[in-house]
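User: I'm writing a short report section on ligand binding and want a predicted complex to refer to. Could you take this sequence and pantoate and write out the structure as tokens? A short remark afterwards would be nice.
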Amino acid sequence: MKKVETKNELINEMMRFKQQNKSIGFVPTMGFLHEGHLTLIEEAKKDNQIVILSIFVNPLQFGPTEDFDSYPRDKKRDEELALKAGVDLIFSPSVEEMYPTEPSYTVNVRDRVNVLCGKSREGHFNGVATVLTKLFNLIRPNKAYFGMKDAQQVAVIEGLISEFHFPIEIVPVATIREEDGLAKSSRNVYLNELERHQASALYRSLLKARDDINNGERNIDQIKKQVQQMIMKETTGKIDYVEVLSYPELKEMKVIKGKFILAVAVKFTNARLIDNITMEV
Ligand code: PAF
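Assistant: Sure. The structure tokens for the complex follow:
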């Protein structure tokens, strides 16, 4: 497995792969790899001859009060896991390498961002779209892999790829869960013991809603109310949002119809957890 930290090294390596006509799968991450990331790598390996992993905690997508400094990092462990998973090349640039100066050009995302996490994380998706634009241009992959845990991110990236004509296929990968249903996330380490125990209620509330919808419930307020009640009853977390929106457009709907997302965000003492299900009726 090759490890590179500079754009020039990366460009050279990518040229080599392109000359050999290899298909490239790209898994962008912020590191502190967990099973969710390893599944993205596994999927990328199935579809491509070469798998590139980027590890970069992108300051542009963190707000001033968010956890950029304390975001968990463990480069050595990440490299060991990536090697075991069969990654061909890791790109782990420094902040200075990606942003040598204060950026003068950034991507401004106007659609699909003023709802769900975008509502309380102003500028977050501009940061995500900007760093991905840079990474896509450097790597020029055939396919890029993203977890559906961040379904809004998948919707925004789908829009980015389509509007900027990136010749890249986006591959959304189903959320990987702990045994009790909690969606795997690097931020789960911030939960205390009690909160970790309670946190599975998020997914259970989504599953209950899915059953109700499969049994014919179409009233959005009713679905949202039940999810809220279950989370309030079973956790000490504070609900940030419970939303039902069309997917991937992320528009409000009057009744449940077509493809949609049911998404929740709950704040615990030191972690804000998100989860969702997408369905089509
Ligand atoms: O999902 C993430 O880890 C990040 O938002 C991404 C896609 C790597 C961009 O920094």
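A remark for your report: Residues 28-30, 58, 61, 128, 131-132, 150, 153 surround pantoate (CB under 6 Å). The mean pLDDT is 97.
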